[in-house]
Amino acid sequence: MKGPYFTSRRLFQYFLQGVLVLAPVSITAYIIYNMFTWLDHLIPVYINLSGDPAKPFYLPGIGFLLVMAGILVVGYISSFFVVSRLLSFFDHALEKTPGVKVIYSFVKDFSEAFAGKKRKFQRAVLVSVYQEDVWQVGFITNEDLAQFGMMEYITVYVPNSYAVAGTLFFVKPGRVRLLNDIQAADALKFAISGGVVEVEES
Question: Domain residues of the chain, as ranges?
Fold first, then answer.
C-alpha cells in the first residue's frame, strides 16, 4: 500500500512542479504572442508571389515592424519645435471638444501618470487607511488639495491585486510611510501580484 501511495504523491508533486515551471512561461508567451499579432494586423502587408491576384501571400512580422517604426518616427518628429506646437494645438482642441475631451483627457492623464513627464507613480508608500496596524502599498499622487478644501491631506492611490484598477484615498501624511529603499515599479508589481513577487531593495 505504501508503494503506490508514495508513487502517486510523487507524481502529483512532479505535476505541480511542472505547472509552476510552465505556467509563467506559457502565460508570458501567450500575452506577447497576442500583442504581436494585434500589432502585426494593424498594418497587414500582403505580397503576391503566385501571380494570382486572388491569392495574396501574408507576410507576418512586417506589419509589426511598420507599427514600431511609425511610433518611433512620430516620437522623433514630435521633438521638433514646429511639430510640437502643432501637436499642442490639436491636444488643446481635443481637450475642448465636447464628448471627446472626457475620453481623451482620461487616457492622456493616465498615460502620463505612468510614462510621461508628469509621472505620478514614483513615490511608493505604505498607507494605513482602515486600521492603524494594517498597511497597504500605495503611491502619493497629489500633495496639494486646496481645491478640495483639504489642506492637511494628500492623495494616495492604492492598486488592487491581480487587477488594473485601484482606489484613491485622501489621508493625512501621518498615515503614510515612505518606501525610500524600494523602486516604485517593484512596489507596483508587489501590490498587483498580491505580494508574491520578491522586492529588491535599491
Answer: 2-40, 124-192
